[in-house]
Specification:
Layout lengths: L1 E2 L5 H6 L4 H9 L31 H15 L6 E6 L6 H12 L4 E7 L2 E2 L2 E2 H4 L8 H4 L5 E5 L3 H16 L5 E6 L20 H4 L5 H11 L5 H25 L23 H9 L3
Parallel strand pairs: 1-2, 2-3, 3-7, 6-7
Antiparallel strand pairs: 4-5
Bound molecules: thiamine diphosphate (TPP) and magnesium ion.
Magnesium ion (MG) binds next to strand 4.
Amino acid sequence: MNFPTYRQAGLLIAGGYPLSTMMNQIYSNEKDPVKGRQMPVMYASQEFGFFSISGNLATQYVQAVGWAMASAISSDHKIAAGWIGDGSTAESDFHAALVFASTYKAPVILNIVNNQWAISTFQGIARGGAGTFAARGLGFGIPALRVDGNDYLAVCAVARWAAERARRNLGPTLIEYVTYRAGGHSTSDDPSAYRPAEESAAWPLGDPILRFKNHLIARGIWSEDRHAQAEAEIMASVTATQKEAEAIGTLHHGQRPSPRDMFEEVYAEMPPHLLRQRHEAGF
Ligand SMILES: Cc1ncc(C[n+]2csc(CCOP(=O)(O)OP(=O)(O)O)c2C)c(N)n1
Ligand SMILES: [Mg+2]
């Protein structure tokens, strides 16, 4: 079971979750599975092992550990994986998660995505300028690794090792992925206000897709032509899916959920104050 942040939408795509469903949520149209009750990229799918993304940073870390503990206590073999950003490791939830993970040897993979920035705050600030994020695990007796997060094969190897440890009931693993947030924090962020414009191009570990592509070409199992073709195919399918979702509706036109929907499916029994608000809203 994955307990992601807003940066792990790729888990859903890799797991075969329909891109059209993700786009419908972005547009908050009639086919949005959460009917506008979440922020657009905060996906959730129990079926695809993707826990609801929380806007409150770091909460998912304790939830991942608790879920893994419950799995172990009930003699199930399922494992959990949690993700957190560099900045969010300064939240107390991060430390609480590590206490419980180490005390109960929970079958959980604790991933830290160190992308160098927490919006405009450099990652060194969240670490207090000392040590590494991986080193935080050692004080709790949790095996911890620091990996080049832009090396696809290294990331796979480390993740597989940690999953194997969790499956064999050997306890938690903490992994720091060293990477770089090349774009803005969000579409409303302007990184040139707090870091040199050329920083992302000069970042030494490089673009992970380019690196993996070059590796495959060097091994003779991929080519520039096949890469260009794959990119074109993916772009065409993304554009087609976007058009499909737009045709269903956006917040400005077409079919969208009724305001009535935001009151439903949250509580098993709607509390009186929500019922009152729903009536006041005319539904
Ligand atoms: C508890 C809490 N504090 C602050 C915020 C506002 N906020 C949203 S994203 C963000 C930066 C997070 O940085 P990091 O943990 O490094 O994750 P990244 O976005 O770089 O993946 C902040 C401060 C929030 N959503 N929740
Ligand atoms: Mg960050």
